[in-house]
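[Automated response] Your request has been received and processed.

Submitted sequence:
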Amino acid sequence: MSTESSSGGDNSAATPRPKTHNPFKTETSASPANSSSSELVDEILPHFPYSPTIVPRETLEKLPFKTSNRILDDLRLTPAYLALKPKGSLLHSRTYDYRNIVPSALAKLNSTGLVLNNCVLHIPSVSHVKFHSDSVVVTTVRGLIVTNVKEHLHHFRIQVLNAQGNGPVVGSVAKHEYHLISKEMVSVDDLRCLDEQAIQSDKLLDDAFFKSANSPTNQLMRVTVYMGEFSAEDLAQLTDTDIIKQRYQAAIEKNPSALSNKSYPTPLHCFTTLIKVLKGPILLPLGQKVHTINRSSTNLDAQINSEILFRDLGFKVGDDNDTLVPPDLLLNRSLKEAYIRKAMELVYLGKQLKLGNKINEFDTQYSFLDNFSQVYSAIAEGDKASSMSMARNDKSNHWHFYVALSAYSFYSEELIIKCFENMVLSDSENKLHYVDYYRSIMSNRPYQSQKLQTYYNNQYLKGFMFGLLDYHNALKAIGVHGAGDDAFVDEETVIEMYKIACRSDYKNYTYFNKQLRIICEIQNSSVIKKFLREEMVSPRAAIQELRIEEATEDEVVITAYEIRLDEVMQSVNFNTSSPEVVFLQKCLVSIATVRRSFLLMAYIDNTMPELMDSGKSFSFSEALDLLGVTATSSDMELITIFEALAKQVDVEDPSQFRDLRVAFKTLAEDKKSKILSSYLRSGRVDPSLLPAQNWPTGLDNIGNTCYLNSLLQYYFCIKPLRNMILEFDENDTDFSNTPARKIGGRSVEVSELDRSFQFVYRLQQLFAEMIHTRRRCVQPSKELAYLSFLPLSQPVSFKTTSASKLIDDAMEISDDADLEIIDGREGSPETPDIIEVPDTSDVDSMEGVQDVSEQSPFEALEDKKIKSIEADQIDSAIEIGRQQDVTECIENVTFQLETALQPDSIDDDGEQYDLIKKLFCGKTKQTITPFDSTKPSRSTMERFFSLIINVSDHPKDIYDALDNYFSENVVDLEEGTVKMSLTVLELPEILQFHVQRVLFDRERLMAYKSIEPIPFGEDIYLDRYLDTEDADILKKRLEVYEWKQEIKNLQVQRDDIRQQDPVTKLSILDSLQATIKYLVDVVQPSPELSIKQETIDTLKMQVEMIQTKLRGIDNKIGSLQHQISEQFQDYKNVGYTLFAIFIHRGEASHGHYWIYIRDMERNIYRKYNDDTVTEVPISEVLNFAEGNTATPYYMVYVKDNLKREYIEPLKRVIEEEESHE
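Generated structure:
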């Protein structure tokens, strides 16, 4: 919906217009000072969301920059400029291109811009159109450009578009940073808002678009210049008294009774009559028929030459040959604009009429302003007052340096600096000249320019402020003479002359290098920059000289260097200081520097001290500071930090890498660390050096159990859960008085107790062995795997087994690290069914955990009833695991753990509450709110063990996924339209996220795994998802919801544009590009075929418009996504810390699993890959690279305040072996 108000017209004409029937228009009331009217736009805007003109900042700042004052001066000087260069354009040119012609030729002309200062409805000098649905406001200012009083009259039309969006109205900016953009870069919607149809005219001289880079309202300005509407012949018909008399006399002869011959019309009468003719069609309301003019009754032919009505104004003769029928201007916007221009031109020319002693009514009724105040009001700049008062008399256009920088003498120093910076950004090729122009402004300002001078000095010291003089001096220093002002010296010539200078006077290398850097900065030469960066020796040359490959390992590089050194030494008679030897040494330095290889650098330090001094040393504390670590940092932490710092080393300063290596070596020697020393020698960590008691126990893969091993390691590292399992004894439970209970909504059967007890015992046995074994890995029993894999619905047949037999078997395994664990533990027929062992366990709380874990390895089995499983069932364990989903295994494990536990309480719905629920279970709340306010809202509670991350939603990170999970949706139910929302009612102590990566391909009819990365961090905050009445959070949630809906709409638009034709499999863009290629490659060269170039150009313009539209959509989506990511940055009260990540590599139907677990005490990550446990850098854990097939499927976080209390992955209690003499 849009509203247009127009300023213009005398008071008698300022009558209210009828209400429009256009659904995109509304009426506005007239202000007390000015009359306003609605003006219809015949081109209806689209229903889809408004898409503004979006030009990326990095693209926009490269386009020609101009200030508003420069643009208006260019507008004002355009007619005079076109008189000198008919095919030129001030508006479309860079200021650098016309910096000289403006002071020398144009500034001396008395060219003025005039805007009518009266409210005349049919001559609106200023009009406003507002499109309500998108808060887009377009202000149009119409005016005249005059050079002399009667000659060289031109028109201008300035449109200023501001898009407020749905946010608050933003005030003015200090100064707009306008950049010239092409019409093709303007969005289709903005062209419509700017009424593209009205611009067209055969009198159009110039038309340019400028976009503000710093406008909070996405401001766009369009500047258009037209020729005058009336020719000299046309004006003679209105002003030549002889012609007027002849025309009047002829009219009397045709109709003597209607006209008197006592007086004749004056030019003023003729002007007034023609304005009235123009006024009627301009103000014709929507829905009314055009008003015809009767020649006979109006005696129109006596006042004006009616030929102009047919030739220029679109009039037609009626059927009676006496009626004049004007055009319907609502159907022809460009003609309507021409009418307005003609009326404005008549008013101005009418004011110039000389009537002797008579009063010129035009002179008294109308006035024009020459300070562009209406334009400055529209663009809303902070310096509006100074621009209006000082711009007219400013002499800056007489100085080429002001013109070139788009600056003016009345600008503040800060603004001149900004002009310089924007000009350099937009036209870096001419930076050299802009620096000189900046200097000229400094020296020509009539008052002190302290800020300009300070800025110049700072930039010069940084190497960013060099001019022509600096350039010429630097060239002369390296031996280049006679360079011109307008062209740079060839880069290769500069480099060669520099090399010659360095070779001829190597002692002045530093001086020559500085001069080369000045030249490089001035020319902005990538070639010279690359040379400076690689000057030591080109890596390619170094590789060639050493006769190696780019991928050759560091150790092999050293061998290759020594072989080549022997060859070179022999060729130079073992002269170690020869250029050949030095060059070879520099080749090795180059490779070491480019690779950032501490191994090669150490070799250089040890073998070539004269080339690279290795005498620098650090104290222990200095080494800690340089590496940014502490004395308690682990070896792996030191290695990780060292490698990260090494990647940041400046290639041009190899000493940085050397210093890092020396500091690292200092710490290795002080800590007497074999691991660090080994790493210094080989660049790798030797796992055999890690002591068993300081390293977690691995788990053997007994066959397709890698995901079970990951799950067991995960549960082991959770201290409360591990303690509960180690302490468990069924004798401590009594379910006789326990009411009916449910787990996961399923009733627990009494028959399931025995299976659950046996599962906990088997897990207890494994955990005890993981704590006490001297081996680096242990093997889970097949019974444990079987109970973990077997679905809960299937029964298990047990037979009792001797506890002592289990202990003996296990002890035998524990004592012999090389003996493979044997699974047949059924015992023998002679073994009693149940072995009762004296009960020595008195542990009953967390306080006694240390005692439990420090018992002998299998004292935890005392007084337990250990049962075996039938052999035929055990044999199916692996096959069950192969067929089972990971989540099924997790459900089996947690159900059995809960079933074995005495409930702490029973919830109202019969659900058991216990340690497992406390650790892992949370609650969500779904609220359904009918849109019908008479119907009540309702809510339901649901428990969760993990929050779902759906890959099919393509979230950009974990927060985006949770936003989708907890989003609000509008759905239609039986009760009507409702809003459904999901919030977190209760959070668990340990929060699990389950990534649903297995999707279904409907074309291939098969499941597949998505490897789309979903980034997550080490910390996550859930404040935004909690059930709350906090108004701020609710408001922010709503904003995120609205932004996401906008993103969805934009994605739909983008998909519509990219949609492929089902037959051709091409999108509209592909089709247009293919058509253009065919026309250019096939049709144009063919002598038998022909195609107009205009057709190809039109197709190219359509391609550019579509591409611009797509870029605008992508930029808007990116902007909205950034807003969403920043929305809850200050809400960090409910925090969790990452400690476990389950990884899967492979396909949907198969693959391999492992887990990363974080050691909170040591702040390191370990990779648990079955029997191998290794420490890894965080870069491996949080690897979200595209194409990485090792994808997280479970991420687990713990509450911040519990992370050190709950997470303990390293738990080893190894008794010292008794000595046997």
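Summary generated for your ticket: The two ends are 100 Å apart (CA to CA). The first strand starts at residue 2 and ends at 7.
If you did not submit this request, please reply to this message.
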